[in-house]
């Protein structure tokens, strides 16, 4: 799997390497429970709504994520395209960014779900 696309989200190579290792360790999440599914990393919009908690990456640059686009009550799991995310034009010349402070592969989908859903 080629994760070099993550450089477009201002991810340092050390993070890319950690994400690749965590992704390899986790593998296919389709049969995992929320408590077993680890969040690999978090992307966010630095100037508005939009947070994506990525938990599985496919070879075609598509990922499974838990997305919070506005209201926590409408947060949901789905897919994103890294190419599309990287091409978003935000105000002030900013782009979608990778949260470097988010713990790679440590939080579960259930933990993040409960944090987000607790916001409403």
Secondary structure topology:
Layout: H1 13-26, E1 41-44, E2 51-57, E3 62-68, E4 76-81, H2 82-87, E5 97-98, H3 109-117
Antiparallel strand pairs: 1-2, 1-5, 2-3, 3-4
Can you describe what's shown?
This protein has one domain. 24% of the residues lie in helices and 22% in strands. It has a 5-stranded antiparallel beta sheet with strand order 4-3-2-1-5. The chain is globular and about 40 Å long. The protein has helices at residues 13-26, 82-87, 109-117, and strands at residues 41-44, 51-57, 62-68, 76-81, 97-98. It is α+β, with helices and mostly antiparallel strands and 120 residues long. The longest helix has 14 residues, at 13-26. It starts with 12 loop residues before the first helix and ends with a helix.
For the termini, the CA-CA separation is 37 Å
What fraction of the residues are assigned to beta strands by DSSP?
Answer: 15-25%
For the biggest β-sheet, the strand order reads 4-3-2-1-5
Relative helix content: 10-25%
List the main descriptive attributes of the protein structure presented here.
120 residues, 24% helix, alpha+beta, 3 helices, 22% strand, globular, 5 strands, 5-stranded antiparallel beta sheet
Quick overview of this protein structure:
This protein has 120 residues and is α+β, with helices and mostly antiparallel strands.
